[in-house]
What we know:
This protein is 69% helix and 0% strand. By secondary structure, it is an all-alpha fold.
Amino acid sequence: MRRLAPAVLLAGLALGGCSGDPQERYCEAVEEHQAELTEVAASDDPGAVFDALDAYDDLAERAPRDIADDWAAVVDPLRALEQALAEHDVDPSDYDAETPPSGLDEDARAEIEAAAREVGSEQTVRAMAAVEQHALDVCGTPLSR
């Protein structure tokens, strides 16, 4: 009987006793990124949002299933806009739709504007609100202060 107890304990550990709760790991990541995301949110630089993408990617990777789709709806449009700006060598901090950079052709401008509309779309805005509310409700802490 005594030999069985250590075997059961080891089996329990092997089956995930030490793996930790995914929700807990996600909430720890929220706390880890909070200062960085607060700095980005406080910035007046329109390109600062791209500084948050690595943190957003990390949070999206760690996100529990119930919020994973919302994270994808936030990150994917931002990555698409980042890519469109980079492909056309446009600095996101300097881009102004009213006065686009000289030399930017209409196709490039249309591509950038379409990507920007996706970032500002109702779906993306709702998804961002959902991940922010989830962090507050489930983790007890906001994404940024």
